[in-house]
């Protein structure tokens, strides 16, 4: 399958749904809603929403029925970027080639826009129970999965561990723990929420967690590699910014070649985790291969 | 009924439940969990969790069955205080007589502790479906209510409106809109979540929304009054701090006497909204009267 075309199609569906489900930029208070939409509409690959939809497809569900939760994952991802860019965190002035939220607006508005997006995510997951075939039990299971993976035991925990470890000599264990929190957790939430909404049974969920771990780690290693070799114009952020902050990354630990080898092995593990799934899981297989081949 | 004793009893139940349901301070990453518990354990009246429990009691439910959601409301309230105290917001060094979270730890940790608490709140509401008598549909309805009231259309919206209006000449309409967002929204979520978990029907929910509006506005007016006349030692924060920031408050608009009269009228409206409820709503009635009589 043409995975770039598939992902672009999913992105169009998700962007139309975001436009429908997120309050308009002129809703009161206007500055908050402008900031929220500014960051949501900044683009990106929309990988996490695609994983929600294709996680649902993998267990026989309808991708359109989970669009509210797909949008919720994009809200959580976007909030994490807004807060991550703040001066007290990474202090990044640019995001996807445009001024980051607190540069375009101000710090307080960026803080609140992030808070609002995180809250909106849980509203959207709850509203997903209004879609055909999605009952309250499935939506509640998805909400719980999202909360666990996005919180102190998952994504926020990964950010905190990253902060807490600055200046320490990085070990493979530490870097893996940071990546697991910062990246694997939300990717797991995406795939598993989609599957839970589609009616997955426990064994399928366990397999999809293994898939998401392989995919998520490979994705983050590929990101670390791109940060070393990427081109500033392609990425829309200063190349080498992680190294400037003396952050622990895979290439720093293992070198570029070994990092590439490990990322490929992790993608193989991800695809192997889908052995009991039929052709319905082909989009997930293709997305796993895509994340280490992309150039941005 | 002795409302102070009732509220103290609820606070003990909630604090025991928080200790059981929130990860320990030494969970990894430790600094994040320390910060999160530091702020949660700073005390306060635990009014919102009490309203969850007594909102459930008012419709015939068990107060103990909704303890996870009662804790969730305290998590959302605590996160809002942590983010509100940050330098880019109110820049307050003290909270409840102790250093605020970003002074005790650092800004990045305070930002993440707030994010983690907001996320944990939705995990706790989802986990409430594990309690006897609470099904997924009720828990999901509570989760949706909390998200709507805590987000851009509610509490976060109120914070943004407050920021956006600084320096403007305050009107009664504007101040009421700010109070509705910053205070009424979360108090509404508390009462209504408790009632939804207890199996409230639509008419009961509508009455409880009117109750929460009266209670919430009266509570905020009483808070504004305490800020003018209160004693620094009793409140644990610098008296007059709102006036220093030229923020719009009820006493600035109407004077102290008229503010007191309006707060009392709002409490009467709140109690009148409970006319169709029997003695099971007595704790809610007592709490409404209490909020304008308290001295801290």
Would you write up a description of this structure?
The structure is a homodimer of 296-residue chains. Chain A has 296 residues and is mostly helical. The first copy, chain A, has one domain: Farnesyl Diphosphate Synthase (Orthogonal Bundle). In chain A, strands 1-2 form a two-stranded antiparallel ribbon. In chain A, helix 3 packs across helix 9 and helix 8 runs antiparallel to helix 9.
Could you list some keywords that capture this structure?
296 residues; homodimer; mainly alpha; 15 helices
Question: Which helices and strands occur, and which strands form pairs?
Answer:
The structure is a homodimer of 296-residue chains.
Chain A: H1 3-21, H2 30-40, H3 47-58, H4 67-85, E1 94-95, E2 98-99, H5 101-104, H6 107-127, H7 136-150, H8 155-164, H9 172-197, H10 202-229, H11 232-235, H12 241-244, H13 250-254, H14 256-272, H15 282-290
Antiparallel strand pairs in A: 1-2
Helix pairs in contact in A: 1-3, 1-4, 1-15, 2-6, 3-4, 3-9, 3-15, 4-6, 4-9, 6-7, 7-9, 8-9, 9-10, 10-14, 14-15
Query: Quick one: which chains have the greatest interface?
Result: A-B, 54 and 54 residues
Number of contiguous helices of chain A:
15
Number of domains of chain A: 1
Number of strand elements of chain A: 2
Query: What is the end-to-end distance of chain A?
Result: 20 Å
The percent of residues in helical segments of chain A reads 55-70%
What is the CATH homology-level superfamily of chain A? Farnesyl Diphosphate Synthase
How do the helices and strands follow one another from N- to C-terminus of chain A? HHHHEEHHHHHHHHHHH
CATH architecture label of chain A: Orthogonal Bundle
Rg on CA atoms of chain A, Å: 18 Å
The CATH class name of chain A reads Mainly Alpha
CATH topology of chain A: Farnesyl Diphosphate Synthase
